[in-house]
């Protein structure tokens, strides 16, 4: 009876020990030997190792937590839960991951594998080639530091170092990152690539070279399949003979479209012109660009910059037929010319700049005075000399890019503040004005149709006021020097009289429609912008550290 009880206790002890050992093994999740051609030991050379080798077609198969490792020979250390393997090594994890290499070390405790020699990792959506690779199964990632090549269906990517986040299907590449596609290439310092999204996120100096475009930036993202993305930080797009810069750029190849936000600059390299603003769009298929929000165009005339500001600027046409259209509150600035109008068209092929106003409404035509109507006309200032009319044309020589002539049609009004009197104004009103430039200065002017003149006359000897000339005629010529009227000649039935200063009432010293618009004249480049332009609040560009 006592013996029987003793045996029962021993059996119970063995059962508990067995249970404990099995639990430990389960907790450790030890590496299992599935098959081997032979198993030997050599405690002198490989202490604690089972030397597993291939015989005939029976290769070594080791298994650990869903991973199967096949090789020609393996050194398995059960106590360390560790092995090394070489000879046609194949590492598989389910149906989603397969890796081949010449040599591998595997730590079952940490679930980390080190592969070396012709490493080839494969998933259904991509492949990875490198000389050495660390595979961390517990963190579900693989990384290399000796250079690697990634390939998917259409692209190839190389880098010095890289990390593959297996579950996220995401790569992180650092140092000498190069991506190649049949239609473009990409170079970067740091790049994250999501295989399922076909999307790359990059930081540091980055270059994207397409068939007809070049993109430079230091931050952004790019859809490698659709060839579209956004770019920030020192971003510039070279596209269709144009350079597009801004705080944030967007590009879409399929739509032939690019846009820019904040501090936008579009440079036409062929026509030597620049357009600035805070929002811009380029439509390559239409050969057009639109700039808004403090928009300003800079063109070269006579080795001098011609600035054109408007609420909206549009550049149309190719390099041979390019036009700039400006709408709403147009203002122009050149060293010797200032201007203002509702709208403007600059035809670079013909060299013609057209300034015009939007048509007056029926109500405006009925209610506004002649002076109020004239205030809406486009206007040019040459020094203190202002010229206005329904439509103004400035024509430049397309070869020399020098101003050649001036034409004003309809309701012509020329006003010059008399330099010697305090309140006097020389005034000419007519139907058509033709002017000629010489050495970039307006020199000779012809005015025709229904001309009225008020002109202050002075003696050449002592600059004393002789009188005030009031004349009507059908044609006149005047000469200017340094943008001041020096001489006037009347033709075709001139009829006039010179009034002594005291004999001409104040209310008769201004022609119908007279208005002095000096307060509208932009004296500096900053005057081109309204207070609303200067106070514009730019949208915040997310993702950019100040």
Structural account:
- The structure is a single chain.
- The chain has four helices and 36 strands.
- With 546 residues, the protein is mainly beta.
- Among the domains are: 28-119, no CATH class; 376-521, Sandwich (lipopolysaccharide transport protein A fold).
- The protein has a 36-stranded antiparallel beta sheet that branches.
- The radius of gyration is 42 Å and the shape is rod-shaped.
Q: Strand tally, please?
A: 36
Q: Uncertain regions: pLDDT < 50 for 5+ in a row?
A: 1-27
- Per CATH, the class of the domain at 376-521 reads Mainly Beta
Strand content: over 45%
Distance between the termini: 88 Å
Class by alpha and beta content: mainly beta
Question: What summary fits the major beta sheet?
Answer: 36 strands, antiparallel
Shape verdict: rod-shaped
From the structure above, extract its key features:
546 residues; mainly beta; lipopolysaccharide transport protein A fold; 4 helices; 36 strands; 8% helix; rod-shaped; disordered N terminus
How do you describe this structure in short?
The chain is mostly beta strands.
Write the layout of secondary structure elements.
Elements: H1 2-28, E1 32-35, E2 38-42, E3 46-53, E4 60-64, E5 67-71, E6 73-77, E7 82-93, E8 97-107, E9 112-123, E10 126-136, E11 141-144, E12 148-151, E13 156-159, E14 161-165, E15 170-181, E16 184-194, E17 199-210, E18 213-223, E19 228-239, E20 242-252, E21 257-268, E22 273-283, E23 288-301, E24 304-316, E25 323-334, E26 337-347, E27 352-356, H2 362-367, H3 370-375, E28 379-382, E29 385-388, E30 391-396, E31 403-417, E32 425-438, E33 441-458, E34 465-481, E35 484-491, E36 495-499, H4 531-534
Antiparallel strand pairs: 1-4, 2-3, 3-6, 4-5, 5-7, 6-7, 7-8, 8-9, 9-10, 10-11, 10-12, 11-14, 12-13, 13-15, 14-15, 15-16, 16-17, 17-18, 18-19, 19-20, 20-21, 21-22, 22-23, 23-24, 24-25, 25-26, 26-27, 26-28, 27-30, 28-29, 29-31, 30-31, 31-32, 32-33, 33-34, 34-35, 34-36
